[in-house]
Amino acid sequence: MPEQLKQRVEACYAQAEAFFKRPFTRPDVSFKLRGQKAGVAHLYDNLLRFNPQLYQANREDFLRQTVPHEVAHLIAHQLFGAGIQAHGEEWQLIMRGVYELPPLRCHNYAVQRRMATRYIYRCPCPDSDFAFTAQRHKLVHQGRRYLCKRCRQVLVFSGQTRHE
């Protein structure tokens, strides 16, 4: 994990402790997040996960905005408990008051899409192609059944795939 990212997490905690005049339990930090999300705060595990690809491509903004965004979730949870909304007033208070940052809900980093395999399922209806994800295809192999909403027949794998 990059040292700068660890230092930024620690700096965010130090800022929050100075602002609220109380200590906060430090989280575990993981650099094992993929996909569209830049970061995720796991409230009950006191864990922060960050996306290494988005960090590398957007380092400056990531350290300035994304790290405090995720830390603010854990701070809000420790201060106000589980009954608050993820991007509600408590979280916004921390973003504005502690970090002096705009409470932006989402990043605007360019995200490269991975090629996804779709598994084609069919029923007796004409022109019935149902593109299943790999996860849904696996569930079918484990015994789950899916029905066509029109004819109510079980969808059957055609043996065909497509890449999107």
Can you summarize this structure?
The protein has 164 residues and is an alpha+beta fold.
Determine the strand fraction and express it as a percent band.
Answer: 15-25%
Secondary-structure element sequence?
Answer: HEEEHHHEEHE
Radius of gyration: 22 Å
Superfamily at the CATH H level of the largest domain? Metalloproteases ("zincins"), catalytic domain
User: Approximately how much helix is present in the residues?
Assistant: 25-40%
**Which word captures the global form?**
elongated
Category from helices, strands and their pairing: alpha+beta
Low-confidence stretches: none
Biggest β-sheet: count, sense, barrel?
Answer: 3 strands, mixed
CATH architecture of the largest domain: 2-Layer Sandwich
The rounded distance between the terminal residues' Cα atoms is 32 Å
The count of DSSP E runs of length 2 or more, i.e. the number of strands, is 6
CATH class placement of the largest domain: Alpha Beta
How many helical stretches? 5
Main sheet: which strands, in order across? 1-3-2
